[in-house]
Design goal:
Elements lengths: L6 E7 L4 E5 L5 E6 L10 E4 L7 E4 L5 E5 L4 E4 L12 E6 L7 E5 L7 E6 L5 E7 L16 E3 L7 E4 L5 E4 L7 E2 L21 E6 L4 E2 L3 E2 L2 E5 L7 E4 L7 E2 L7 E7 L4 E7 L10 E7 L5 E3 L12 E7 L7 E6 L7 E4 L7 E2 L4 E3 L23 E3 L7 E4 L4 E4 L11 E5 L9 E5 L7 E5 L4 E4 L14 E9 L7 E7 L9 E4 L7 E3 L28 E3 L6 E3 L5 E3 L7 E2 L11 E2 L7 E5 L4 E5 L7 E3 L21 E3 L7 E5 L2 E5 L7 E2 L5 E8 L9 E8 L2 E7 L7 E2 L11 E6 L7 E5 L4 E6 L2
């Protein structure tokens, strides 16, 4: 029997507002989110069954949230977590008796640590129970559930349907866990290397009528979403023995709910999901008679491809339920039935959406989409008109479900106030104009003229991913960006520029080599690794010249009307960098030979220079478009360069002829320049770095010689930091891009 030690971290929970640490100027730091509003996939949405207005959201890579009905916003529950792999929530289970208790299974990927979290105060604080069975909150099968369940007749008993290690059980409120050896399916084990993950056990459902208070429930159902002959097991002796349910469908069960009359409803798909699904069904099982009935909304030879995932029952009206399709080829639907699935009503056909508060959801179209990857689906047990569902980009909610009975229109709005669940790829804070320009994965990016308001998605062109953003230091009205072409643009482009601080953009197209076959718009997808389609772009200090980093870099000084190939660079030269003061000067590094190349004619020709002080930098060569930029030029200083080599920061003041290492004892991932401190002449430096085993956000006011930590234990954000940018006009303000919690920014309280 496995009994992991319990690690109690009392402060792991609700994000605090004010730091206890201070900057070098003695000011406490306040941390907030830059508002986008949702943005990512929330596989699960669960209402408390015992308290009105209490609900929980689980995300696949951005933590969990609790709905605060008084504040009318979602509260992030894990901002104090320092563990990056706890961002993916495999399952969440509010206690069915005690409204204050809640449990979560956390683990984003199977290669890293996983745990069961326990809270007695609604997630304000957590007890962490490390467990040996690995999880995959951001792997295939994350739409199933719920895997974690609390016995309503004895809340000391919890079951967890694991991905790789069968059925797990706790009899002491989740403090210790052991494998249920009587369960017939032991699991397929953790797949090696990059092999595809398994979905494992998809749900655990107790029958409350089969037990009594403090004695536990006798009847338990467990679903299996792995390939095999049996996908549903039943126990009628509190887990001592298990039997395959007779007559069960051959497909993979996704979600299940049991109503008060003993009818078990199950959604099915032919793949673990949330993608790759081509077929599916909905069934119900009378657990007393053992009779199965298919109640799939769309049947027959002409039914669209796709399966089913989301499922919720109206607890106030037995026989009323909603289900969602998954990967339906003609667009996903939420179906509603009031007679146990005998007849269905298409809610999509009755639906309108108001996304004015979160305008990126228009995606450049006239109307917002109904949604895709709909798996979190829940009817409020205290209000049958209130229902919500999750998509790949947001959560929609309405209080008008009852309109369906009269065939009246249903208005849905994003239910995401407080939710910031996105992965940020790049960002910059220009010298003038909007304080922040950002590039996101999946949702393009934004010009943040107001950090407290959700902005429209940057368009003309719109990108799926934005990979690079740059601005002209001496003409900050000029900006450039590159990204992955989007299906919402026809024709599509991967480069763009603006001459009015990002208010308007124009597409740009770099030349392609002879014989190159560009992907047509109707075959558009993620073009990872395409050196031409996904090439980065930078701009000269005066905004007159753009350089596109195709394998043979090309330069334009007339906004793309003509192009010239840059000459003199080796094949492996990394990213080109513009000097931030001299418009004619550019730099590039030969990582193979640790040689710096310099251009003094606007990136038309490059020549190597003798450089002293740089170590071997082979290991620092960027290999992916999302890698950190290691070579940086100081704003408004000719020839002032910084380079991060294996975490050590090197500085040159003579155009790269000499580099010297700065502070010792700190390992830097990436940095940026911010406004100088009052009375100082040198710009402040800000970095994502590790010092004394603390990966954190740091500030230096002495050119990198010493560093002060700016975020404290209440604002760890899983230490999943992707980028950093510092404000050029407000001293002390720093922007931090996270992997799952959007963009946060900190500034001194005074």
């Amino acid at each position: 029997m496995m009994k992991p030690s319990l690690s109690r971290i009392a402060a792991f929970g609700l994000a605090l507002t004010v730091m206890s640490l201070t900057s070098a100027f003695g000011a406490e730091y306040i941390w907030r989110n830059v508002k986008v509003g949702g943005g990512g996939y929330m596989p699960g949405l669960v209402f408390s069954q015992v308290e009105k207005g209490l609900a929980y959201l689980r995300s696949d890579m951005g933590g969990a949230y609790r709905w605060d009905d008084q504040a009318k916003r979602w509260i992030p529950l894990q901002d104090t977590s320092p563990e990056p792999n706890y961002t993916g929530i495999e399952s969440i289970a509010p206690d069915p008796v005690d409204a204050n208790s809640v449990y979560m299974a956390v683990g984003t990927y199977r290669f890293f640590p996983s745990a069961i979290l326990r809270s007695k105060d609604r997630g304000a604080h957590w007890d962490i129970v490390p467990v040996p069975f690995r999880m995959g909150g951001n792997e295939e099968g994350r739409a199933v559930g719920e895997r974690l369940a609390v016995d309503p007749n004895n809340t000391n008993i919890l079951y967890f349907g694991s991905r790789y290690d069968g059925l797990q059980r706790s009899t002491d409120n989740g403090k210790h866990w052991s494998k249920v050896t009587s369960f017939p399916y032991a699991g397929l084990g953790v797949p090696p290397g990059h092999a595809r993950p398994h979905a494992g056990l998809s749900f655990v459902v107790f029958d409350p009528a089969s037990g009594s208070k403090n004695k536990g429930s006798s009847t338990i159902f467990v679903g299996i979403a792995d390939p095999g002959p049996v996908h549903l097991y039943r126990s009628d002796d509190a887990g001592k023995s298990w039997q395959a349910v007779q007559g069960q469908p051959p497909s993979l069960p996704q979600q299940a709910k049991l109503d008060g009359k003993g009818i078990l409803y199950i959604t099915y798909s032919d793949h673990a999901g949330p993608y790759g699904i081509s077929d599916g069904a909905v069934y119900k099982l009378d657990i007393k008679s053992g009779v199965w009935t298919e109640i799939t909304p769309e049947t027959g030879a002409n039914k669209p491809k796709g399966g089913y995932a989301g499922l919720s029952l109206d607890r106030a009206h037995t026989g009323t339920l909603v289900v969602s399709t998954s990967c339906r080829e003609k667009g996903d639907i939420i179906w509603r039935s009031q007679d146990g699935g005998a007849h269905w009503q298409n809610l999509r056909e009755l639906s309108d959406r108001d996304v004015s508060a979160v305008p990126f959801l228009y995606w450049g179209e006239r109307q917002a989409e109904f949604g895709w990857w709909i798996s979190g689906l829940a009817i409020d047990p205290f209000n049958s008109d209130h229902v919500a569902y999750t998509t790949g980009a947001t959560v929609y909610g309405t209080d008008e479900l009852g309109h369906a009975e009269r065939n009246q229109r249903i208005l849905w709005k994003p239910w995401v106030e407080g939710v910031e669940q996105t992965a940020v790829i790049t960002m910059t804070s220009p010298a003038a104009g909007a304080p922040l320009i950002s590039g996101f994965g999946d949702i393009g990016g934004f010009v943040h003229t107001d950090l407290t308001q959700s902005m429209p998605i940057t368009s003309n062109p719109m990108f799926t991913n934005t990979n690079t953003i740059d601005y002209a230091e001496k003409a900050p009205n000029v900006l450039v960006r590159s990204g992955t072409r989007s299906k919402h643009n026809r024709p599509s482009y991967s480069l763009s520029y603006s001459t009015d601080y990002g208010a308007h953009w124009r597409p740009l197209k770099a030349p392609l080599p002879a014989g190159y076959s560009e992907i047509p718009d109707d075959k558009l997808g993620y073009n990872y690794g395409d050196a031409y389609i996904d090439a980065n772009i930078i701009v000269s200090a005066d905004g007159a010249r753009f350089v596109v980093m195709t394998p043979e870099p090309v330069v334009t000084s007339d906004r793309g009307q003509s192009w010239t190939k840059a000459k003199g660079l080796p094949a492996r030269h990394g990213w080109i960098v513009a000097d931030r003061a001299d418009a004619n000067r550019f730099y590039a590094l030969d990582f193979e030979k640790s040689v710096l190349y310099v251009s003094n004619d606007g990136a038309l020709t490059f020549k190597p220079i003798a450089t002293k002080g740089l170590p071997d930098i082979k290991a620092d060569e960027p290999t992916r478009r999302e890698d950190w930029q290691k070579l940086l030029a100081t704003p408004n200083k000719v020839g002032d360069l910084w380079f991060v080599a294996q975490g050590t920061l090197y500085h040159s003041t003579d155009g790269g002829q000499h580099f010297s290492a700065t502070a010792k004892g700190i390992n830097i991932s990436g940095m940026d320049f911010g406004k100088a401190a009052p009375g100082a002449t040198e710009m402040a430096l800000y970095a994502i770095a590790t010092k004394a085993n603390e990966r954190a956000i740091w500030q230096s006011l002495d050119n990198g010689e010493s560093w002060t930590r700016l975020n404290d234990a209440a604002h760890e954000y899983y230490r999943a930091f992707r980028r950093i940018a510092a404000d050029k006009n407000i001293f002390g303000r720093v922007y931090v891009a996270t992997d799952g919690r959007g963009i946060v920014y900190g500034e001194p309280s005074r």
